[in-house]
Specification:
Number of helices: 6
Number of strands: 6
Shape: globular
CATH class: Alpha Beta
Order of helices and strands: HEEHHEEHEEHH
CATH architecture: 2-Layer Sandwich
Helix content: 25-40%
CATH superfamily: Histidine kinase-like ATPase, C-terminal domain
Length: 184
């Protein structure tokens, strides 16, 4: 994958397949440029055996193919920067995936189009789950929550082109002062 937003897309899609009702995506950068990516869901969760399998490129829950590279590739990219990943999961409760990356490493991937990734997730899944994006850096923080958008729009679907366009611009506008010059 060529940027972190594509990893986030892949990991969040795992949460959708796990039948989560809320998927929280966190991107935080500290003063030392340590990047922490978090994907937390309230989906079906994983038992210890499945948790071990998802760490292997030859382990997947999909029936359409025999490999699952998303988590192993994210782990490799995190480790190349001197970071790592952690997965906590409990059956019936949900899963939390955390990756740390050293943003000042030459091997750290760029953030990519985080706003586009979130809007793609929302428009591909207009009935749910709900998505929460929380971002922070020394320059500030922001939060976007589809539950608030749904409440404001009433019966208007989140995949309406005008709504998608508005969400994209609103998220980009909030991200620029937080990550501009830091990891964008």
């Amino acid at each position: 994958m060529r940027d972190l937003s594509l990893h986030i897309l892949d990991l969040a899609e795992n949460s959708v397949r796990a039948k989560a009702s809320v998927v929280a995506i966190g991107v935080k950068v500290d003063e030392g440029k340590l990047i922490t990516l978090t994907i937390k869901d309230d989906g079906c969760g994983m038992d210890a055996e499945l948790l071990q399998r998802v760490m292997s490129p030859f382990g997947t829950t999909r029936t359409t193919r025999k490999v699952g590279l998303g988590i192993p590739l994210m782990a490799q990219n995190a480790r190349l920067t001197g970071g790592d990943i952690a997965i906590e999961s409990q059956v019936g409760v949900g899963t939390t995936f955390t990756a740390t990356l050293h943003g000042d490493s030459i091997d750290c991937l760029p953030l990519g189009d985080l706003a586009g990734t979130v809007v793609s997730l929302v428009t591909a899944n207009p009935e749910g789950p709900d998505f929460v994006l929380e971002c922070a850096s020394p320059k500030g923080e922001m939060q976007f929550d589809t539950r608030e958008v749904r409440q404001a729009l009433g019966d208007v679907p989140l995949n309406e082109p005008e709504v998608a366009s508005w969400m994209l611009e609103a998220i980009r506008e909030e991200l620029e002062p937080i990550f501009g010059g830091v990891i964008l």
